[in-house]
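Two folds, back to back.
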Amino acid sequence: MKLDNKLLTTLRQEIRAGKDEIIIPKSVKEIPARTFSRSNVKKVIIEDGVTKIGEDAFSFCGNLETVIIPDSVSEIEKGAFMWCTRLKKIIIPKNVNLISDYMFHQCHSLEEVIIKPGVGEIGQYAFMYCQDLKKIIIPETITKIGMCAFYECLSLPEIILPKNLTEIGDSTFYHCLSLSDIAIPDGVNKIGQYAFYECTKLKKIYMPKYLSNISICTFSRCENLSNITIPNGVIEIGKFAFNECCRLHNITIPDSVEYIDDRAFANCVSLKNITIPNKEAKTGKNVFESCWSLENIIVHSYKTFSTLDFFDKNIAVFDIVKNYYLGKFKFSNEDINMFKEYIKESKEKKLLLHYTNGDKKLVEFMIYEMETILTLEDINKYLRNVNDIEIIALLLNYRNENFKYKNSLDELSLDDENDDEKGNQKKLIL
């Protein structure tokens, strides 16, 4: 039976009279929704035999410090203990399959959570804003952790995720400022957007080998993250995925990655080396924006870059691995606009176009004074008489000692191989 009106009235009267402890007898099967919501009760003992705690049953009980829940309880509905701001410890019984949405939302003093084996899922916002949470035991039976489940659990230093876990929802560990180390089980195939956003003490993370996508802002602003291996199998790296990972030095993108979205590594100010092996990989805009320490980029194809937005003005070395497939490059108005934006900050104000013919033999170079190039037609007119030419790379401030060029639209001189018999450099007139 549900908690009958007579018993409910009696318990409420006792609480109002100053009694701070109540016992829900075993004869009661269900505690109805909002039964004790906003009451002054401090301790609740639920006897074995009760099977269900209704929605918001003890919500906003600001004085509640202790709750004892028996294993007979198999269902605890949404928000049952939310805003119980003095609750310090809770044990979730084994027969509860789901820790419902908002169950302990805003329980600011909650320090320890023990989830017994048998529980299968942690719902959305379940422990959101549990700012004092320091310890949580998650059993191997948990397969899914919902969106914002541990959002801003500021004191949580570590968490051991169960090996049967398959999904981590959006913003699950958002702004968990004390979280320093976490291993994601190999069974996880989905990590949501902002999942570890601004976990500023996170230094390393093991990523699962079956992960196929790194979502938007997943590790953004993890400013102490210095070591990360992206598993081979990841196909896409989302927008801002590693934005502002200030201590990230080197990273190798696996061959499986086909697309790196806008600003994926923007503001990684310590990043020095990047390798992108997949010759078919593409990038979005400003992928390495404000990566001031970036020195080396190794790719397998110029087709990786949709526009010069990929680059930043301080790149020292750009290496394209030999023997890759060459395709045609077509200028677009978007490219021209991007050129102009970079030229505003470029000291040398030049664009180097590096050409090869069909048999991959280097035949020509071209320098443009970018201040004079204003339209798509301005570029295309210089390509008008070039047959079977493919552009390898478009670079600003390309630094290579083998090239010496003049401040002219139509002249470029090369070392060694283009010298005449007297040692004078020849000019390529375009």
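---
second:
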Amino acid sequence: MNATPESAEADTGAVVPADAPAPETEIVRPRSSPATLVLAVLAIMFTLWAAQGVILPILLAAFFALIGNPLLRLLCRLRLPRFLGALLLLVLAIAALVTLGRQLATPAAEWIAEAPRTMRMVVPKLRKMIEPVQQASQTAEDIARAAGGENPRRPVQVVRTEENAPFRALSTTPKLLGSVLAVVLLTFFFMVYGERLQRSAIALLRERQRKVLTTDIMQSIEREMSRYVLTITMINVGLGLVVAAALHWLAGFDAQEALLWGTATALLNYAPYVGPFIGFALLLLAGLVKFDSLAMSLLPAGMYVALQTIEGQLVTPIVLGRQMALSPLIVILALLIFSWAWGLVGLLLAIPLLVCVKIVLGKVEEFEGWARLLE
């Protein structure tokens, strides 16, 4: 059998020239074990919970800055300096919140003061509504005990009382005011210096491809998140106004009380599934307190369900489209995790953060499958 030149060269021990190109070798990327990934996720969750005092003001400020950035760009096109535009938007937003707070303070204080009497009024009505269910449950329980030969005994109820510290509210007030001030200042600086910070961070990257990819990701996040947050805010405000108008004109609520419940439903609508359920329970409670008849008691909650259905099934899908579509299961898990870590603020920030993660995954070719998994 004739030997090939390569085999002959190998047999004779010929030396490969130094300037010959080296054979290409496949780069093997290190892979993390499942245990390492689980530990990393647990470490991140613990860090989010432990450092919430620092993380939450930053995330809230970024959230509010995303709402204001489209309006700020409009002001900049009108030849208004960015510094003055951000200051003007913040002043207008604070003035609007103070005005709304003054309108809602009276009905909110009345509801809080009347809470014990309200519960005494609502409990008999609720018992009357669920009396058939309780009777059926009691009958089934008696039959089961009779079949098992057990004597029905009333369980011993243990009532625990907790003494509130008299100075607890006084001690937490300065911390709350400091957090609010930090959010306001951070929002202002994010709006004024956010773009400059992005350019400085991108300039630290050496490879041009990474600079292009990072720039694309950051611009997409800012553009899509600003559009999403601003659109959702406008939809929620519209829903709150329509709910308030319906409660005032159709259910007979006074203007301030209707505005209170409209504001509550607008804020709760930032948390899909969970927020509308809480809003339904609140309006059901308000109807039971205000009206004596069962039909009128269910009217506020029924109107809210109808308006919420129209908003969730028609308005939001048409306005946002399929680009921001998220899996209901992923949404519920995100709401569960972030509400556990950050409470009510976590419910507010869960969906924007989830949308941000989806945008990043969709821009990186290796993680496009994960982005589709969130849909």
